[in-house]
Amino acid sequence: MENKKNTKKFKFLPHTADRKFQAFGKTPEEVFKNSALALFNIIYDKKISEKKKFKIHAKGKDLESLMYNFLEEFLVLIDSKNFLPSKIVNLKLNKKRLNIEAEIVGDSAEDYNISEHVKAITYNEMFIKKIGDKWISQVVLDI
Amino acid sequence: MEIKKISENIYEIPKEGKMNVPVRIYASEKILEDIKNDKTLEQAKNVAHLPGIINTSIALADAHQGYGFPIGGVAAFDLDKGVISPGGVGYDINCSVRLLRTNLTKQDILKNQKEILEALDRKIPSGVGRGSSFQITKEEFKKLMLGGAQYLVEKGYGQKEDYLHTEEEGCIKGADPNKVSEKAIKRGIGQIGTLGAGNHFLEILFVDEIFDEKTAKAFGLKKNQAVFLIHCGSRGFGHQIASDYIKKMEQEYGTENLPDRELACAPIKSRLGKDYYSAMCCAVNFAFANKQLMTHWLREEMKYFFPKIEIEVVYDVCHNIAKFEKHLVDGKIREVCVHRKGATRSFGPGREEIPKAYRKVGQPVLIPGTMGTASYVLVGAKKSEEISWGSSVHGAGRVMSRSKAIRELKGEETKEKLHKKNIEIKSRSFKAIAEESPEVYKDIEEVVNVVHDLGISKKVARLKPLVVIIG
Predict the structure, then answer these.
(1) Do B66 and A117 count as a contact with CB atoms less than 8 A apart?
(2) ipTM of the complex, rounded to two decimals
(3) Domains along chain B with CATH numbers
(4) Is B339 part of the annotated catalytic residue set?
């Protein structure tokens, strides 16, 4: 579960079969980063070493689809490269062109026990919006 | 929300607003109360908005909240006016269950219970990050997408009867690997023969009770016999195919007129509708092949313990699928596109889709329960073709969220409780055990009794677990 340090970054909401979270940020970049952290937090609850580095790239036609495609890249890395992401070291969001480039560090999955296997990102109840001076996202994950 | 009782175990939400048809709920009063606790019925109403839906949007007794369609949802669509929706199949395309019978008894397993548990856990990769020892080239992988379980049997991983006793004979027609993205191939190629995680499992159970001697005999089941149950799907391969086509359909047809973006769909006869079906069939065949390989490995591993062991496939049923089937609509037999999302086909006697060995009695309907209670073997019945598009339930259905389960239940305690009941369990983490604890599901007996009383499938045997490996 999220620790105190993380409570402001994201929170989990009830959902019968799957997992649902909201993430927060002062900027759109931050809300994307914190959404990824919420995803990582569901997948594992231990520290992952920073031994390997991957670059990901995602595009969208609106902020929601950009979020879907961005988060999906992590599931693809886990399945195809056996790579567990630990931290996003560099994230560039082009809000106008709706694309994201990010560098991710992490480690090989075989050395860890995973706490949850996320099958897919979904559009169900998804949103990203600015409320006051804060950005907030909501995502339901298929487990 | 107005819910009308039609008769015992049958409820209806009348058509309102932009719904094209009413919602039908097949549940007991008690189960209906559980179902009302989340968004299941709202989602079943959303399904009723889809173009070309025929008669009713159905929620079965095990229904619970999903995304787009509810889990435990069934809907049929007109081929000309209707749509096909990846959200009506689910991300885990052909998440399915295979039952294997053996010539062993409960006592044989109990004598070596822990050793068998450890051996199977080593042999069958589960969880995340444990790839498969079965590695193939991309060209061979494409052949597997076309051939499913049959491809593997031809390569020596099993016997002909294995796929003959599988829905679609383990190889659904219509698959086209050219409709599958490189990303899906990358995710799936290393995962053949892996169990995955979540609610997927491999179990050894014993036949605890027989309700229908004649049908049990036809299925090769008898009291005290040891059996295997494998529950898994198409892994990252199917997840990516679903995801790819949800995005494509949303792009091409938009979701502005739909109540949920996750219900993205395309006309059945459109290029995109056909492409999704062809790609979905590749994932269906992947899932059949996945369980075929595990069956082969089980046979290899169990021979160390029992050199004379015989393991035969009883049946293998799909839980997440869209299919073209002939059904009676307005007094005429015609082909429709049935979406089953967390539902089992439940054809009664006579249907040509049923393997010859079972055609006289009806198809086996396999309903996994929870790891601490029981699983059921039922037989399909004609009534299902009249009221539920030839479908029945697929499991107990969750009532408690995963996050609540982790907060309130302790995996260690569940493991200990099961140990006292003579059930040995293995999992990647106690958290995973907590999430799948018996308490998080509806009462399987109650669910099974509803479909039995409705007559859409009939009880044949109850199975109780001895060895459980969860992903």
Answers:
(1) no
(2) 0.86
(3) 4-399+441-470 (3.90.1860.10)
(4) no
